[in-house]
């Protein structure tokens, strides 16, 4: 997302959230919104005027607005408003490492669009390049995700840890998973560990190969694989799935050829089921890949006729023969057991099945969504939220992840963030009645919580349903609804995988 796109998203989200009561946005004429606007526009006289006479607590209140992931300070940094950033740090006393309501710092924000002058200023004034926010992400993760090579160099020269880990891995994991070759080179030049294993069991090499299943061209994946192998990535790891197993599973012929030349052993099976790469290649339907692996693979005893034809035929047969059981069937069987356990309301048992299935395929978003549901039913909100966030990372276009996230936040009584999660789902599918109902519920909970905190009941009959959903659930196309959903569609196109990333 470039700067102009971010500006449009900012405007669209402001319009949408302005209709939210108590936890949406302050009134358009409030000092808080005026301060936000002044920061985003680089209006220094207005910033000084609004902050005049306020103590530290008053200035903190003034900046307590979060829109598109950032407050006034972070938004000014994201938009490259260096003078506004300087004013807030040097004149108004803002903490250079202050985070928005979502935890995003000004340094992270500036990294997104490679605002080098702002980044240098913040780092020169003590910004911590290793400060982490949501799920352990740091500025270097953001540079890797967006492919900001120059920003990565600056961060590393300023003390950023090259292998700083989040729950989804190091910056090298992030860059490899998105084919950001330029950033990968920078990270490897600074001795990033190409064999680091993430919490979900992946290495940078496995991330680069698995990314082809999510749309990354094999040609790009191959370039990433070559970089990693040349940097010392192990092509025959013992603690994780081998790269050759992954490449064969996805039918990546060029990647398999390179891995074999690099010393990958075609006789190492997938540990969970004993299936060799040649069998996985047959299951994927790639005869060419089977022919490539055939002379290098030791005969399998369960196949009496060791020929390419028999290997292909055996893969096409029904999975009643346990000797060549496809990996996907193993995962599906566990998933089926989990679904049966959910029907029995045995949520603990179901979560165990889903956990085992995740160990077989940590890239399947549906498994995290299902396990998140189990955690919700067991009132384990934090675990439910973690799984929902992983689901969103793996399938950002699938609304179920946002629904699970919103439900977890509702359980945590963080109604404002729950509204944001459900709204993100509506941005993806404005016609989802389930998401609309959940969003309504979050708005009502937020309103009730506000009144409970204030100790009084509303004296008027609030009609937020009619403001937010003029069709009253029937989706009758009124003018205001059409405008709202048109903006939702626009924000859908502009929203990236993770807010601000």
From TrEMBL:
User: A Pfam family matched by this chain, by name?
Assistant: Ank
Keyword Metal-binding assigned: no
Ranges of the ANK repeats in the UniProt entry: 102-134, 135-167, 167-199, 239-271
Q: Which residues form the signal peptide?
A: none
Task: Give me the segments passing through the membrane.
Answer: none
Intervals holding TPR repeats: 399-432
Entry keyword Zinc-finger: no
InterPro entries, per this entry? Answer: Ankyrin_rpt, Ankyrin_rpt-contain_sf, Cul2-RING_E3_ligase_SR, TPR-like_helical_dom_sf, TPR_2, TPR_rpt
The protein's UniProt keywords, in alphabetical order, are: ANK repeat, Repeat, TPR repeat
- PANTHER family xrefs: ANKYRIN REPEAT FAMILY PROTEIN, OS03G0680600 PROTEIN
- Put simply, this protein is called Uncharacterized protein
Organism of provenance: Lolium multiflorum (Italian ryegrass)
High-level lineage: Eukaryota, Viridiplantae, Streptophyta, Embryophyta, Tracheophyta
């Amino acid at each position: 997302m470039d700067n102009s796109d971010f500006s449009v998203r900012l405007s669209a989200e402001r319009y949408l959230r302005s209709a939210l009561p108590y936890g949406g946005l302050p009134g358009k004429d409030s000092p808080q919104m005026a301060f936000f606007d002044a920061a985003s526009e680089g209006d220094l006289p207005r910033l000084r005027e609004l902050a005049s006479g306020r103590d530290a607590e008053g200035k903190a209140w003034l900046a307590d607005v979060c829109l598109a992931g950032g407050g006034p300070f972070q938004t000014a940094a994201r938009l490259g408003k260096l003078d506004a950033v300087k004013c807030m740090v040097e004149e108004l006393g803002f903490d250079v490492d202050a985070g928005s309501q979502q935890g995003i710092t000004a340094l992270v924000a500036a990294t997104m669009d490679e605002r080098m002058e702002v980044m240098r200023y913040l780092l020169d004034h003590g910004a911590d390049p290793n400060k982490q926010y949501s799920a352990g992400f740091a500025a270097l993760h953001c540079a890797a995700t967006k492919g900001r090579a120059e920003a990565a160099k600056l961060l590393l020269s300023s003390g950023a840890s090259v292998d700083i880990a989040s729950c989804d891995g190091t910056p090298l994991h992030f860059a490899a998973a998105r084919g950001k070759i330029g950033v990968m080179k920078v990270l490897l030049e600074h001795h990033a560990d190409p064999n680091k294993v993430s919490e979900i069991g992946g290495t940078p090499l496995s991330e680069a190969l698995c990314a082809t299943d999510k749309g990354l061209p094999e040609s790009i994946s191959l370039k990433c694989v070559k970089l990693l192998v040349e940097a010392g990535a192990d092509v025959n790891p013992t603690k994780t799935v081998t790269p050759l197993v992954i490449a064969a599973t996805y039918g990546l012929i060029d990647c398999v050829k390179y891995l074999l030349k690099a010393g990958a052993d075609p006789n190492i099976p997938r540990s969970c089921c004993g299936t060799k790469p040649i069998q996985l290649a047959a299951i994927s339907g790639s005869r060419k890949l089977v022919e490539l692996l055939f002379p290098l693979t030791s005969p399998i005893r369960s196949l009496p006729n060791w020929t390419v034809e028999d290997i292909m035929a055996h893969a096409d047969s029904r999975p009643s023969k346990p000797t060549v059981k496809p990996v996907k069937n193993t995962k599906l069987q566990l998933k089926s057991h989990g679904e049966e356990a959910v029907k029995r309301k045995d949520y603990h048992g179901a979560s165990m099945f889903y956990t085992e299935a995740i160990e077989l395929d940590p890239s399947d978003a549906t498994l995290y969504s299902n396990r998140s549901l189990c955690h919700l039913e067991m009132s384990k909100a934090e675990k439910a939220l973690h799984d929902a966030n992983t689901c969103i990372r793996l399938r950002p276009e699938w609304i179920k992840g946002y629904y699970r996230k919103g439900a977890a936040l509702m359980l945590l009584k963080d109604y404002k963030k729950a509204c944001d999660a459900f709204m993100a789902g509506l941005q993806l599918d404005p016609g989802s009645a389930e998401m609309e109902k959940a969003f309504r519920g979050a708005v009502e909970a937020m309103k009730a919580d506000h009144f409970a905190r204030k100790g009084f009941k509303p004296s008027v009959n609030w009609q937020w349903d009619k403001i937010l959903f003029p069709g009253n659930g029937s989706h009758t196309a009124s003018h205001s609804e059409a405008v709202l959903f048109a903006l939702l569609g626009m924000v859908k196109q502009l929203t990236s995988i993770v807010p601000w990333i």
